[in-house]
Specification:
20% strand; 5 helices; alpha/beta
Amino acid sequence: MKLAVCTAQAEERDRLCEWLGQYCRLCSLPMTVECIDTPQQLSRQMPGAIQIAYIGFGSSAGFLAARALRERDRACRIILIDDTTQYAIQGLHLHFADFILRPVEFRHVTRSMRLALERF
């Protein structure tokens, strides 16, 4: 299974990748984690290439990237990360697996992974 961490903030991206790796080791889940730092990189992903995506580019850029991924890939489990709850309701309509309000904590990552994995 392939995970993607899509955020422009290097510190947040590195921390999320570390936490996801830790979660996968603790749960004995065979997963690889790819770090993506621009919406353009995310848009180049082929449908089906990513099973779970954490997207947090901020403001409308993050939501638009998540919506575009959803349009290309209905099976991908998307977790949207943002500074405000503005996109949480819209994410429900697009069937995102979860919404995380910053600041992100390890407990948020474990909850979102459990939600995303329920559907596999």
